[in-house]
Design goal:
- With 390 residues, the protein is α+β, with helices and mostly antiparallel strands.
- It folds into four domains: 181 residues, no CATH class; 48 residues, no CATH class; 44 residues; 45 residues, no CATH class.
- It is 14% helix and 27% strand.
- The strands form nine sheets. Strands 14, 16, 17, 18, 20 and 21 form a six-stranded mixed sheet that branches.
- The chain starts with 9 loop residues before the first helix and ends with a strand.
- Keywords: Membrane, Signal, Transmembrane, Transmembrane helix.
């Protein structure tokens, strides 16, 4: 699957309500960890096809399948923010754990078949009986089988909104309020059969991804309808059947800010640009500047354990000196204003008198009962010659 980042043409966006062309994103470069060789397969019984694998952030698309199927073959899941995560199945007590997901009938088509007595000739049918059978038609997996990432189904929807009572359809990833860092690849996944044209019942053949800036005031953040000032990224039209798309946020999209609030949306080809609303089924995200690659120090780990991020600690460190200066200034003026009222002599004398106070008479104290009194001149330190202390 080729991943590219292109804005729709100026002519097209000039007729889209609420859209504003900001700039043209650069072509996204596919990251490959190792060279994948093309391979040949036969599709639809007779047609030959050369398949070229593509590696995106360590995930290989269109890889040549193993000669024999293996229940323990690793598969790729997606974390809440859309980051890929390899799952390795294992066998415990004779049962397979963490096996590939079962999609049930989500990608099958329901159909009805009618049989007459002549068709079945069942021994328990009357000649005039008709048997109606419900069944499912399997999806054509010629190309979906080459996608190693788990597919999005309604079972993996989440709830969004303030009360968490709004379905995330058609999205499985990313979750609402996820953090997307610049320079990191994330996978958007959606339930492909959600986009069914209500007029003809057909599933959308092509879709495209939009990312738009969200403008909201701090006072009503999260409480009122957001305004969409402009769509800054629009992908090319792609096959809806893929149900997954890789995006690597770019620094230019932040427009000099550290963080921007954005809404992610998917437009099916049967909805025109004028009728499409990014907020109707969009999901809100935080796009932030990625951190620099550096070795984490012990102090940084301690701050992380305490729940303080680098940015928070930076602002705290800047704020502390200013707060200290303000406190000292207030204290200085308070003391100057009350300098004539700072007489604590009565309190000091009272405290000293308490320390000097002796309860009872010395003669009655057990320690001094048997002690014989002496005149001052009889004391050892008295100097008889001079009549004073030495």
């Amino acid at each position: 699957m080729k991943v590219s980042l292109l804005l729709a043409s100026t002519l097209l966006l000039n007729h889209v309500h609420g859209y504003k062309q900001v700039h043209n994103p650069k072509e996204e470069k596919e990251s490959t960890s190792e060279e994948q060789k093309p391979w040949i397969r036969t599709i639809y019984s007779t047609e030959k096809e050369i398949v070229t694998p593509t590696v995106i952030d360590g995930v290989t698309f269109s890889a040549k399948p193993a000669a024999t199927s293996d229940a323990l073959e690793p598969w790729v899941s997606l974390e809440k923010n859309g980051r890929p995560k390899t799952i390795k199945p294992e066998i415990k007590n004779g049962h397979t754990k963490k096996g590939k997901p079962d999609y049930s009938t989500y990608f099958k088509t329901a159909a009805v078949r009618t049989y007459s007595y002549e068709d079945l000739k069942a021994h328990n049918m009357d000649p005039n009986d008709v048997y109606v059978e419900d069944y499912f038609i399997d999806e054509d997996d010629t190309y979906t089988s080459l996608n190693p990432i788990m597919r999005c189904t309604p079972d993996n929807y989440f709830h969004k909104g303030l009360s968490k009572d709004v379905s995330s359809e058609p999205f499985c990833t990313p979750r609402e309020n996820s953090m997307w860092k610049v320079g990191t690849t994330y996978f958007v996944s959606w339930y492909t059969r959600f986009f069914e044209n209500e007029h003809n019942g057909k599933i959308a053949e092509n879709v495209r991804i939009h990312m738009s800036y969200v403008k909201e005031k701090a006072s009503d953040k999260g409480y009122h309808k957001r305004d969409i000032p402009g769509t800054f990224f629009t992908s090319e039209w792609m096959k809806n059947i893929d149900g997954v798309y890789a995006i690597e946020p770019e620094e230019e999209w932040l427009q000099g800010a550290y963080e921007r609030r954005i809404v992610l949306s998917v437009q099916p080809n049967y909805i025109s640009d004028e009728e499409f609303s990014p907020l109707e089924n969009g999901v809100l995200l935080h796009m932030i500047m990625g951190s620099k690659v550096s070795k984490t120090t012990k102090e940084e780990w301690a701050l992380a354990d305490a729940g303080i991020s680098d940015s928070k600690w930076y602002y705290i460190a800047l704020t502390m000196p200013a707060v200290a200066v303000v406190v000292f200034v207030i204290l200085y003026f308070f003391l100057q204003a009350n300098k004539n009222m700072r007489d604590f002599s009565d309190i000091t004398k009272s405290s000293l008198n308490k320390k000097r106070r002796v309860i009872g008479k010395f003669a009655n104290m057990k320690k001094f009962k048997n002690m014989k009194n002496h005149k001052y001149e009889e004391l050892p330190i008295y100097n008889k010659g001079k009549g004073k202390q030495s």
